[in-house]
Structures are given as C-alpha cells and as structure tokens.
Amino acid sequence: MRLPRDIDWNELVVPLRRFDYEVMRTTGSHLRLATSKMGKHQVTIPKHSPLRVGTLNRILADVPQHLGMEKSDLIEDLFA
Predict the structure, then answer these.
(1) Is 15 exposed, middle or buried (0-12, 13-18, 19+ CB in 10 A)?
(2) pLDDT digit string (tens) for 28-77?
C-alpha cells in the first residue's frame, strides 16, 4: 500500500491506539505517544494538519520496526 497523503495528526494518533500507544504528554504543538508492548517505545507526533510526508514516513518506519512488522503491513492496518 502506498504512503497516504493529507493525513491529519489525529488520523494517525487514533489508529495507533490499536497497537497500545497512548498519549503520555502534550508539549506545545507535539504529542508524545508511548507503549510498553514488546518493550518501551515512544514516538513524537506534531499536531500539524496535514502531516508532512517525510515526517509521516519516519513515524511509519519507526513504529513497525519496534513492533517487529513490515511497514506496508502497518500502513494497511492503520489506513485500510
């Protein structure tokens, strides 16, 4: 599946909850999400609308690496 375009920060935060990511704090225009599934992991998401493609790409590369899955599978799970 192709990397989605015009994704709002909230359209990424809500589906990440399925992978046990929870908002830990908000600082300015950024959210810090964390999970303890498969070890501790944190990811920072800017509250931008839409998210820049490079920023989204980096987040969608970091999360599946921690979860031990393929990036394409995560994209399909989150946005399909």
Answers:
(1) middle
(2) 999 999 999 989 999 999 999 999 999 999 999 999 999 999 999 999 99
Nearest to 77 by CA among 19, 13, 20, 9: 19
The helix (H) or strand (E) run that includes residue 14 is helix 9-16
Domains of the chain: 9-69 (3.30.920)
Strand partners for 44:
32
Helix axes 71-79, 53-67, angle to 10 degrees: 110
- pTM score of the predicted model: 0.87
